[in-house]
Amino acid sequence: MPVQAGKPSSVGDHAAENLVFIRQAMERSATFTSIPGAGGVAMGLVALGASAVAARQPSADRWLAAWMGAAVIAAIVGLIAMARKARLAGIPLTGSTGRRFALGMAAPFVAGAAITYALWAVGNFTVMAPSWLLLYGAGVLSGGIFSVPIVRAIGVCFMALGIAAIATPPEWGNVWLAIGFGGLHVGFGAYIARNYGG
């Protein structure tokens, strides 16, 4: 008894499979371009305001609270701006490139939070500013491997400021934070908005 051949697949089925494969390959090789320029400018303005508020605080704990509050606000602003840019461009934030970008940034950020807590617990505020700049820069540089080259440049600049902050008196920490989280975000954010859309 002859074996019945399976149902032949149509050309349409092959075309659909090929399109899925091509789309997945492009997503794997694509760079993460949803870094928000306008959002970066807004985050920088938040940081500049925080530096002015923090400089007027009567205690180190209040100084830290001012910067932590600003970090939460800036993170929310950045995430909203990133989601908006991705939506307008039709790029999923949860795609494989976006996940790799987030993973590259996550470890240094978690380390920064842990180090901040440890320093606060022992009452040592003098190295917080350099630590924040270095670890934020490391996170942006690591995540930037999956993004456009300008993002990696931002990470390098933050790390350079962190090193400069180590080499100067601790009292300058607030100034370095204003230059980094304020000035770099505003400057690079404007550049990204002009050259990479949004």
Radius of gyration: 22 Å
Order of helices and strands: HHHHHHH
Q: Supply the number of structural domains.
A: 1
Oligomer: single chain
Mean pLDDT: 84
Give the structural class. Answer: mainly alpha
Q: In percent, how helical is the residue content?
A: over 70%
Strand content range: under 5%
How many β-strand runs? 0
User: How does the major sheet shape up?
Assistant: none
Using the alpha-carbon principal axes, give the shape: elongated
Please report the distance between the alpha carbons of the first and last residues. 67 Å
* Number of H/I helices: 7
Runs in which pLDDT lies below 50 for 5 or more consecutive residues are 25-30
Question: Would you mind describing this structure in some detail?
Answer:
With 198 residues, the chain is mainly α. The chain is 77% helix and 0% strand. The chain contains seven helices and no strands. The protein is elongated, with a radius of gyration of 22 Å. The model is unreliable at 25-30 (pLDDT under 50).
